[in-house]
Amino acid sequence: MASDVYEDKWNVPVNYVQKTTKQERNFAMQTENRIHRILFITTILCLLSLICTSVALSADDDQIDWKKARELPRKQRQGQLLTDEEKAYLERARQQRARGRPGRTLPEGQRLPESDQAGKGKETTGMLPITELVDGKYKGQTGGLYGNGMNTPPASHQAAAKKELAKIRPLDANGEPSRDGKVVLISLGMSNTTQEFSQFKRIADADPNKSPGVVIVDCAQGGHVAAQWAYPNKYKRLDRRTGSQRPSPWAVMDERIKNAHVTAGQVQLVWIKQAEMGPANLGQFPKHAQVLQKNIAVILEKLKDRFPNLRIAYLSSRIYAGYAGTPLNPEPYAYESAFSVRWLIEDQMKGKPELNYDPKKGEVKSPLLLWGPYLWGDGIKTRKSDGLVWKREDLAGDGTHPSQSGRRKVAEMLLKFFKTDVNAKDWFIKRAD
Prior knowledge:
Number of helices: 11
Strand content: 5-15%
CATH superfamily of the largest domain: SGNH hydrolase
Number of domains: 3
Shape: globular
Strand order of the largest sheet: 4-3-5-6-7
Structural class: alpha/beta
CATH architecture of the largest domain: 3-Layer(aba) Sandwich
Order of helices and strands: HHHEEHEHEHHEHEHEHH
CATH class of the largest domain: Alpha Beta
């Protein structure tokens, strides 16, 4: 029997090392072959899965009646409530369309459901701005900002406005008249409101004709619709980034006023533009508009309680929402929010105690209400009074919030209103003295 030859250092037989090295190479080759086979099988399974998914999606498409899907958003815009089955059907249609599969087309003669056309939407609705609805009616309601085709306050309300406006003057931090005091104008509303009012503040502060004593503070806040301002403890919100509870919009308002170096006693005017989230869930017109009306009435009482020298609330309704691609606040709800504003003013003129502004008639619970600028126009159809149009590029991607050009458009309407309206210009414009 031949003796083994040993390594010098480790005392290991040389022939053992050679045998072991050969076995390791064989094992490595077998392992590599197994890996290749596994990768090949995995690739085949993935391809089969994609093919099956594609077939399933095509089968799902065949189950969607796109004509039916197109009619459901129309029902919502008309103020009709969808059943749970219809909501689920519409959502399935939206999800399928949102996948955006290349090369997929709808059956001949059919179109994408209108509320899913976020890139285009409806350029017009055929509805008349209520400022132009002089003789006709909308769902039983007369036209005009102040009703019965009138776009200016009735004589009695105008006289009351004149008395309240005469009380507006520069006030010191304690709310007392002072030649060096301030007249504070704030905003209150949701995301659209703050986007538009912040733009207005920039151009107004740069306008040489604005009174230097007027301080503009944007207190409107994204994500806070009328219900959340009216009942902040009921509708609490979480911060998406931190998960913690967001502060009350009223607390944020107080902080912004403080940061502007003015006080609650100096706030004398407010611009309010409000809406509700998902108004289709609140019922057909007039129900959803009545909910908005009641919530704004609650907000007005809170405002008057917080700001004792608040004299005038200028109210505006929504801009055009025909391009909206979500149920957040599309047409006709944006249009119909104008009636919420008008009903509030009409109730105040009728002497409703919850909207009383006159201490001679009882407890004061509200500032005097007036229309601010009316912002709605029927899309690309030119508004007669001033040529206003709302093009697709004036709205952001969702068709609901204003783009930069849309914000500028509202800001300029606000500036023109405060500089020229008989019920605003006297306190807003710089006096010669």
